[in-house]
Amino acid sequence: MNGLMMDRPLLISSIARHADRFHHEREIVSVTVDDPLHRTSWGTVIGRARQLANALGRLGLKQGDRVATLAWNDHRHLEIYYAVSGAGFVCHTINPRLFPEQLIFILNHAEDRWLFIDPLFMPLLEKLAAQVTGLEGVVVLTDEAHMPATNLENVHCYESFIAAEKSDYEWPDLDENAASALCYTSGTTGDPKGVLYSHRSTLLHAYAVLAPDVMGLSCRDSVLPVVPLFHVNAWGVPYAAAMCGAKLVLPGPKMADGEVLYRLMDSEDVNLALGVPTVWLALLQYTEKAGKRLDKLERTIIGGAAVPRMMIEAFRDRHGVEVRQGWGMTEMSPVGTVNTLKAGMELLSPEEKLDIGVKAGRGLFGCELRVMDDEGRELPWDGKSYGALQVRGPWVCSDYFKLEGNSESHTADGWFGTGDVAIIDAEGFVTITDRTKDVIKSGGEWISSIELENVIMSHPSVASAAVIGIAHEKWGERPLLVVVRKENANPGKQELLEFFNDKVVSWWIPNDVAFIDELPLTATGKIKKLDLRKQFADYRFPD
Amino acid sequence: MNGLMMDRPLLISSIARHADRFHHEREIVSVTVDDPLHRTSWGTVIGRARQLANALGRLGLKQGDRVATLAWNDHRHLEIYYAVSGAGFVCHTINPRLFPEQLIFILNHAEDRWLFIDPLFMPLLEKLAAQVTGLEGVVVLTDEAHMPATNLENVHCYESFIAAEKSDYEWPDLDENAASALCYTSGTTGDPKGVLYSHRSTLLHAYAVLAPDVMGLSCRDSVLPVVPLFHVNAWGVPYAAAMCGAKLVLPGPKMADGEVLYRLMDSEDVNLALGVPTVWLALLQYTEKAGKRLDKLERTIIGGAAVPRMMIEAFRDRHGVEVRQGWGMTEMSPVGTVNTLKAGMELLSPEEKLDIGVKAGRGLFGCELRVMDDEGRELPWDGKSYGALQVRGPWVCSDYFKLEGNSESHTADGWFGTGDVAIIDAEGFVTITDRTKDVIKSGGEWISSIELENVIMSHPSVASAAVIGIAHEKWGERPLLVVVRKENANPGKQELLEFFNDKVVSWWIPNDVAFIDELPLTATGKIKKLDLRKQFADYRFPD
Asked: Which of A62, B82, B216, B363 could anchor a disulfide with B212, C-beta 3.0 to 4.6 Å?
């Protein structure tokens, strides 16, 4: 027997309608190429999204067709989010920082029919265009005055593209499981893979992140997502902010500019900012140099990579800002855990709070977590058992786009293997200790390459380092420490290995050290361990 | 084309699982008949819910069968919530304050198979039992030591009922649209009507109320729902609190006892409390008399009836407590609007803030609102146009139980008519001005009976009052003021009518006054205007 409740689908267009009705005047401030401080509102953004939806309606697109973006965070990109998904198409946000061959692969694999692009990326597109097959037209996100010259065909100016359109538009009634957005994830190996979000997954994720223990978003917040709109839907902020009517401050191409970020935060009363550790490093360095304090900022959500303890400390002690570390993946919409203190923990010492703060956070309702051993048995949440972290929930991917049924990333019982190795403690806080493919399996036990790298990175002579597993007759695998020395530093192998004493258990200490000039890195700055392992394929430990 | 996201149903059992895993130790404190201050935790409550689910499994119930409760707010009632719904049955919470004939009607209409009952309500049940047809068994919510003597058959003690059961239980995979709970609403006319919630509607509503601008629930909150678990699922608190791991403080039968409520708030660090105006009146009166201040309480959500301005003021100015007025209905799960200030409103004067605070609040994402005129045209949100308030959303009922297709409460285009007359202002704040059936239609315009009643209630000689529409040759209808005078007071008609001058527009002022000894009231204390209209059916205005 079913309940007798209205069968209303969860659609992105209902967020648009809500923001328009209840938060019409609430501000959206953007840095764009044509305007250093553009001011608009949710009502105007949604009105222009309806104009854009009318324009899209003339292009002959079918439900589910992909419309791509190569763009920074600004109001026009936000309009595209609502117009494309709301009208029943798929908003495919592309990371412009990928290698050109990846961009070509992604545009072709997604079969993008139209591309909305920031003027700044036109030179990039011009280089790729000949190899991109299905693109029918390009819309440049600017006004006529700032249109770049180009030899490409069928290139339109965004402002002219929508100018003549009516702002009346009837959002279509879609199935809530319809695809709404597409985002490719580029691992360290193989071709990028597309994660295809639905209206339902997007809305449930947005509801979940609104909660006080996650982002805690209200209509009184002024929010600066420094995480790009092309990066997993900016962690859901464009949807959650519209749901509650928060003010959005969008830094355009100024993502990495500490001074611009500081000025935006100060002038726009930003009390919540979100980003990856590297952008916050730029901001913290700027404030230190300029002698500024982040007076208005109350909290920041940091994800995308582990947050260094000193960053949490600097925000807290020098700026009075609460850091909430989060963990997630493109495959998870992305939020899986967020770090906020539980009741009673407010009584802990500042150091004890940091011990918790450096963890990846605890699970939010809607994303189930489990940790599995090599035999597929679930491990206890005891703060010491570590294994493969798996997740399940309505905003976790079931497959990759056009690879349906071929994915090895899901278990037979329907969980997604994150590729992370984790420990969960009794309170539900997760610590990511490694990637499953990087973990070193020694005598049936796992050694965390990341933990070893974190230790050695604090050695004064080490510029960068990686630990990889090397085949070992007796133990199966043993760790090899690969080090890039700092200029003019010349530490010996023994000195480096002794540095691990009392910092890790003795059997974790690497068997040997190899020195190289530089580590192979991905486009997004991660160490390509696969390449490193290839490089050391013939390496053998000394007897 | 659909998204590629996991097809995970929204189920109440997943809330149980989440609370058990992430908030196992978080406290649940209850006042019960057998223990004045019972302490348990989410982990234990969910473990006992699994035991109860095993016990229910032996009763031969089918998916969707109704299991009723007649009980106060305590941990056992909470266990029943999770066990019954999680196992696939329907948790039918009954309001023990209804008239006996209504209780008999409801138990029979719902076809309840088992009843879980507080010992305090056993005498009530004994009076009704002969007329209740389908009940197979009764479980009394206490331990053996406190079991009441009874002549009824097949009566069990709750603690013994679950004691031998294992706490392992595999929650079944249900369709998220499956019925989860049933609650009857008793209007002023006709038989009570059943609202049948689904797992999906319950979870979406719980997600929505977690948000900072609604209840703002976090795991650090200690929450006292003085709103009963038998009243629209205590506004969703039992679910939302488990979703985020909030502490619950459950006052059992002490709902109306200002002193007990104060002591619970103080000893259990309650920072969020929810209830109807009448219980808060009892609390405020107690604190005033006893010279106490609600130091730990931070905010209270008040709904169920309009919140008097002086109540908001008393909480704010004497106790430093934020009042959030809410509006909703049993048919709406129930939350439709909640009153929190928007950005910039913090700069208003205390009086201006009160002007906003007395409104019913603004819509939250997930519940659409519209106001319609007599011809079914939508009215603007201008702060002055009033009409019939209609709502739509995934937690709004589509029909009443066993009355499917017969409901006159829904429009052809799928909106639910709330029966309220409302004004919505440009910021989306709703003011409820009347019930549609009580509004007086004079010369094509509407006169609010409630507003007139509010005015005259502040006259020093008026004990209670109601305004009803009386047929009028020229105007269609005109208002008649019906007054119960205070003891020893003897105001004249003219004096009362003149009291309206400058308080309402002149054409709203009633045409006449009638004095009576008492107003007809419903079981829940509302004026039975239908009876009053019958009483004055032959009344004619003086020429």
From this structure: B216
Q: Residue A177 is nearest to which of B3, B14, B210, comparing CB atoms?
A: B3
Q: What's the fold here for domain A439-543?
A: GMP Synthetase; Chain A, domain 3 (3.30.300)
One fold for both B12-24+40-198 and B439-543? no
Mean pLDDT of A134-140: 97
* Residues in CB range of B75: below 8 A, 6 or more apart: B28, B30, B32, B38, B40, B45, B250
Q: Which CATH superfamily is domain A12-24+40-198 in?
A: ANL, N-terminal domain (3.40.50.12780)
CB contact under 8 A, B427 and A198: no
Q: How confident is the model over A31-86, as pLDDT tens digits?
A: 998 899 999 999 999 999 999 999 999 999 999 999 999 999 999 999 999 999 99
B451: left (phi over 0), alpha (psi -120 to 50) or beta: alpha
Among the partner residues B2, B177, B207, nearest to A177 by beta-carbon distance = B2
d(CA A283, CA A297): 12
Q: For residue A18, what is the nearest residue in chain B, using CA coordinates?
A: B365
At B18, the amino acid letter reads H
Mean pLDDT of B279-287: 93
Model confidence pLDDT, tens digit, residues B154-186: 999 999 999 999 999 999 999 999 999 999 997
pTM of the full structure: 0.93
Which residue stretches of B383-519 are H helix?
449-457, 493-498
Residues of B in contact with A245 (CB under 8 A): 342
A124 burial (CB, 10 Å; 0-12 / 13-18 / 19+) is middle
Say what the ipTM of the complex is.
0.92
Q: How far is B305 from chain A (nearest CA, A)?
A: 23
Domain boundaries, chain A: 12-24+40-198, 439-543
